[in-house]
Amino acid sequence: MSIGGGGDTRIPLFPLSDVVHFPRTELKLHISEPRYRRLVRDVIENDEEARWIGIVLLKPGTRTDLAGQPEIFPGGTAGRLLDAEFLPDGCSNILLHGDFRFELRREVTNQPYRQALVHPVDEPWLNERDAGIVAVRGGIAALVRWLADELGERFPFGAGDAEELARRCPFEELVNRVAAELDLPPLRKLQLLQETLPERGLSVLSILRHRQQLVDQLRPYRHLAANSQLN
Length: 231
Description:
The protein has 231 residues and is α+β, with helices and mostly antiparallel strands. Helices cover 39% and strands 26% of the residues. The protein has 7 helices and 6 strands, in the order E-E-H-E-E-E-E-H-H-H-H-H-H. The protein has a 5-stranded mixed barrel. Helix 2 (131-151) packs parallel to helix 4 and helix 2 packs parallel to helix 6. The chain starts with 8 loop residues before the first strand and ends with a helix.
């Protein structure tokens, strides 16, 4: 399928309750349920460039749709299957690379696992040298470095990771990797995924600035936490 062609495509769906996948990021999953073991086997038989699995978020609660399936939000990310390790017990560990966001058109019923027709959502073309993009990118990179230094293991990126993000990642990958790794509720991450890339960049920058403000506000009380570990 040509992602930029505007057409719909049919892909299998893998619903998760607490994970939102972002394009240009990698996601590792352990597959144990029998129908999803079959999903993985079927996807591997596709052409290498079309080995997509749509990662979607389950709606909170126990509601089901008309087909008796747990309800899902109508959008997600199609991850391309990069690797699958089949285990002796029949389970598998897989690695996905996020290819594109999509909107769910309709689910395909009477299948061995969930499938749907989805419409790819193209990201707008961005000039990486645009002054606004440069400013947002620089702000995100600087705050990731600062929080990594301040929080250490309590922050998802180490100092080396922060430098690698700042030096090597294009804007989209930088924004999405930070969004994916931040400790945020799944619904907040879904909101980020549904934003356009420029909006998502600004949102991630705002979240990091808020984290910085909290760290600064709590700085006078850090010695209390340190002393409590000694008691």
